[in-house]
Design brief:
Layout lengths: L8 E2 L19 E9 L9 E10 L18 E12 L5 H18 L9 H28 L7 E2 L1 E7 L2 E7 L3 E6 L2 E4 L6 H7 L18 E2 L8 E6 L5 E5 L1 H4 L4 H8 L4 H14 L6 E9 L7 E2 L2
Parallel strand pairs: 2-14
Antiparallel strand pairs: 1-11, 2-13, 3-4, 4-5, 4-6, 5-10, 6-7, 7-11, 8-9, 8-12, 12-13
Helix pairs in contact: 1-2
Length: 306
């Protein structure tokens, strides 16, 4: 894919348990977040959804005979970013995108463990974890359609970034996107699951297949068909900017303009500017942007723009 990072690797390494049970010390990074969504200027209903979730794992000493300077605990934090773009029109794509995120949150409360640190052990299991969540979402869709037959045909894209500083795992299906801005260069990290992209990779001229760019070849739906997800790993650096967005943004705002806005110092202000830039070109679709800034450590905790 043009402009894609060459060092973004398929997440499939396997190592021995004994070599990966204890994660190495990770460098400290300060993360800041922003998120915005807009119905656009044409659609009557916003079928996009986004979320920014902070997970924590901590220990608290209740009693000990040890002196205070003989022990310490480090709190673990992980951050999950989500963008879901519902499809289905009258079949209520807004319900599909909302239900997808709600199901992920509900399933996570029932998970026997959370992914909080990056280790090779997690790499062995991550595809199975992802498959379990995707199966759970499709089951929730089927149950919803059984109660609401008019919703048959609903579906959604799903692009998720799980950040365990300095590591990031991307899980993606559909035509929403994840971008990385690093040292002034913008990289598209995900592949569009569309007929247009399939044709381009088969040798077609991109200009001749534009009419197929919204025909999804992979999405979450209620039809029970198997879905495949792109699972990628990348190591973040100070100064990186991560953008997750729906196609209502990426279709309407040129890459150089995306990069220019992402260089801003405030992630929430950048999200709002991206929405405005898409609206300025006609706002033909729903528009969603979620941004993470990777900064040098400071005294402040990770925060959201709102």
């Amino acid at each position: 894919m043009n402009g894609r990072r060459d060092d973004t690797v398929e997440y499939s390494e396997k190592k021995r348990f004994a070599d990966s049970f204890f994660a190495p010390e990770s460098p400290s990074l300060a993360l800041r977040f922003g998120g915005s969504t807009h119905v656009g200027l044409v659609r009557k209903r916003n079928e996009d959804q986004f979320a920014i979730v902070h997970r924590r794992r901590c220990s608290e000493m209740l009693q000990t005979s040890l002196p205070d300077d003989a022990w310490s605990f480090h709190n673990d934090s992980a951050y999950c970013l989500f963008v879901a773009d519902g499809v289905g029109g009258a079949a209520r794509g807004d319900v599909a995108s909302s239900l997808a995120l709600q199901t992920v949150f509900e399933l996570s409360t029932r998970a026997t463990n959370w992914l909080m640190k990056f280790t090779d052990l997690d790499a062995q299991e991550v595809h199975e974890r992802v498959e379990a969540y995707l199966d759970g979402i499709q089951q929730a869709f089927q149950e919803h359609v059984a109660l609401h037959p008019r919703a048959e045909g609903m579906g959604t894209t799903l692009t998720t970034a799980v950040i365990m500083p300095p590591h990031m795992i991307l899980v993606h299906l559909g035509d929403s996107r994840a971008y990385l801005l690093r040292q002034g260069r913008l990289f598209q990290m995900t592949r569009d699951d569309t007929l247009a992209q399939d044709l381009i990779e088969s040798g077609a001229d991109p200009k001749t297949v534009r009419s197929f760019r919204h025909l999804l070849t992979n999405s979450l739906s209620a039809d029970g068909s198997g879905v495949t997800s792109e699972v990628l790993h990348s190591e973040l650096e100070i100064g990186d900017r991560i953008l997750l967005c729906s196609d209502g943004l990426s279709d309407c705002v040129a890459r150089d303009r995306l990069a220019e806005i992402l260089t801003g110092s405030d992630p929430q202000a950048s999200c709002d500017q991206l929405i405005e830039a898409a609206l300025a070109t006609g706002g033909r679709d729903n528009i969603t942007a979620v941004i993470c800034h990777v900064n040098a450590p400071d005294s402040s905790a990770a925060s959201t723009g709102r």
